[in-house]
Structures are given as structure tokens and as C-alpha cells.
């Protein structure tokens, strides 16, 4: 398995660095700021940045792409449906690419933006997912360009991946997301236990990621809209009966927007 480390950026972003220590090669994921990546490389003489992976076009994910490409000659991979600066490889759903000698599958997950993609590595022992701003730890991205129906379907696709999949999302939103999750399901013991763990981590100024898909299925309300208790809570908040998981999801997303 590749080594994967988080580089903090801005106030709550993470730039994920994929690393092959034997070859001293690396790839950067969603480098909204070139500075942290450049500092990481300067601290490791002899390492080479070969690739940049982009999930969507927002500036906090692409702001450092052109500078890093110019400095290191890295190949830039990003969604075909969005305007990604300096992109070399335009990616579509189900396409497979090879990064640091590992095969990644592209999964189109519109909702946060219209062309958002995720990258999935189906390692037999520890599969992992670069989910950008679609699936967060205990949450999901806001709907800036896509619809609630699109995001619901996108999350369902990701939820169908193996339960042992490690989830590498792009922001440190876990604490706030879990507080919302507890408001939706106040009697969910798994949420309460996870919230306690995350509070301790954040008090110690430690990262809460990566997550794991099995944990998300148990504690992330946006993956649980088919659960009767979640549907009841969303219906009560919306003031009307929500008949389908899709409508429950849309109500949850609107609730979270003002939570």
C-alpha cells in the first residue's frame, strides 16, 4: 500500500500526499495551495512529484496546481466535465488510471459540483477512496451546482464500496458533522461514541481522518436516509412526511445548511 499523509492547508483543508517510499515518488491530491506541497518536497531531497489528482474545480482544491506543475512537471488529472487548470488527463466515469504504479478507478459523483469525481483504489487488503468534497467524515458536501437527487445517488455509489474502504476526504469537518448527526439520531450509540473520540482528537489538535466506510454507514446521517429513525427526524424537522430516502436526504441536507 502507498503511504498517504495529510498536509493541512488554509483553515480546514487537507492535501493528501500519496507516496512510494522505495522510488521516492509522490502525488498530490487537490492542492489548493502549492506552499504545503512545496515545503513537504523541500524537506525530502530526492523526492519527485509525478502527478496531481483533482476532484473538482473549486479554488481551494486547484489554486496551487499550475505552480506545482510548472515547478515539477507533474501530470494533472481531473474531471473532464469541469474546467481544471493545467489539466493533462481529462477523466470520466469508470476510467482507470495508474498513479505510482497503483490503479485507481474514477467514479463520477455530481452534487457538490456538476462534474465532481472521486478516486477509488480496490486494494484487496485495504481499499481506499479519495472523496474530495462529496463524502465527508459523518457528512457530505453542500449542493453548489448539483441537485439533492444527484448527491443522493453519488453517495449511494460510494456507500456500496467495500465496508473496509478508508475514506480520505478534503476537509476537517468531522466534529461539526457529528454534532449534526447526534441532533438527527440522539439515541445512536455509535454516533455518541464517535463524537467523544473526535472531541478528544480535536482538543489534542489531531486529525480525525481517514474514516472508514463501515463507520460512515453507522454514523453518517446522509448515508442513513433509509433508516426509519432518520426519516422520522427529517420529517419532523421539515414539518411534513417524507416518503422516500431521496426526499429524506434532501431534507437532511437543507437542515444541515442552517444547523
TrEMBL record:
Gene: gloB
Native organism: Stutzerimonas stutzeri (Pseudomonas stutzeri)
Protein name per UniProt: Hydroxyacylglutathione hydrolase
Class of this enzyme: hydrolase
Key words of the record: Hydrolase, Metal-binding, Zinc
Domain of life: Bacteria
Cofactor: Zn(2+)
Record Pfam families: HAGH_C (PF16123), Lactamase_B (PF00753)
UniProt remark on cofactor binding: Binds 2 Zn(2+) ions per subunit.
